[in-house]
Inverse folding.
């Protein structure tokens, strides 16, 4: 599994991603499989857990319970929508975020669900995790819950195999030189475009938020009641 790509992920989690990936691969020879597609139902509410790093599909992290796959979450949402015993859908969050791939699409699926949806954040809903939480009708958080970290980071796995690449004359930006400011600006331009979609999605799902308010956070987080006063959450509760 190559971890290179664009992520909406907290800095602390991103720093340990490559090392943890190597450790898990070293101890596992099992194929990665998606989680069960049927959510837990309690008193008419379907509980869908979004815990750990978010990935588009099952992989070594989801196998060990350190991450969740969007395709499995989408199946659980569909199962809850189609179950006549379910009157409400609760997404239980404790996620630092994850891969960008599939997050925007799944947030739109949550937003158009025909049954009431709520996000409950017990630990954190950061970055891509917050992108999904924002799509719910209501966000409820614990006093110590962390929300925010709204932004995008490019993770590029270094090549150590001695490979030499020659790029065609009119496609220099396919392989920008990351040791130069111009090369980094090329990557940053793409990240800024993705971030703009991120911001637009949040303000579309949460009309009380504004683009300026999101930019003012500078990718930082807010805790508990401060997240409510900032507009990232609707209320502190249980």
């Amino acid at each position: 599994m190559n971890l290179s790509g664009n992520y909406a992920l907290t800095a602390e989690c991103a720093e340990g991603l490559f090392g943890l990936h190597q450790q898990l691969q070293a101890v596992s020879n099992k194929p990665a499989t998606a989680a069960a597609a049927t959510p837990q139902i309690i008193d008419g509410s379907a509980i869908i857990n979004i815990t750990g790093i978010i990935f588009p599909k099952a992989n070594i992290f989801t196998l060990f319970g350190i991450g969740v796959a969007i395709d499995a979450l989408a199946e659980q949402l569909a199962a809850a929508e189609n179950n006549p015993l379910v009157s409400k859908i609760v997404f239980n969050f404790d996620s630092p975020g994850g891969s960008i791939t599939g997050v925007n699409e799944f947030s739109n699926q949550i937003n158009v669900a025909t049954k009431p949806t709520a996000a409950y954040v017990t630990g954190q809903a950061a970055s891509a995790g917050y992108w999904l939480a924002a799509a719910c009708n209501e966000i409820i958080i614990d006093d110590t819950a962390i929300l925010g970290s709204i932004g995008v980071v490019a993770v590029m796995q270094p090549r150590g195999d001695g490979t030499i690449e020659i790029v065609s004359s009119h496609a220099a930006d396919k392989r920008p030189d990351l040791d130069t400011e111009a090369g980094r600006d090329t990557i940053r331009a793409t990240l800024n475009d993705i971030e703009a979609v991120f911001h637009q999605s949040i303000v579309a799902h949460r009309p009380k938020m504004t683009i300026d308010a999101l930019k003012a956070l500078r990718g930082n987080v807010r805790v508990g009641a401060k997240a409510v006063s900032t507009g990232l959450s609707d209320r502190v509760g249980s």
User: Anything to note?
Assistant: Helices lie at 11-27, 60-63, 70-82, 103-111, 128-133, 181-205, 211-216, 224-230.
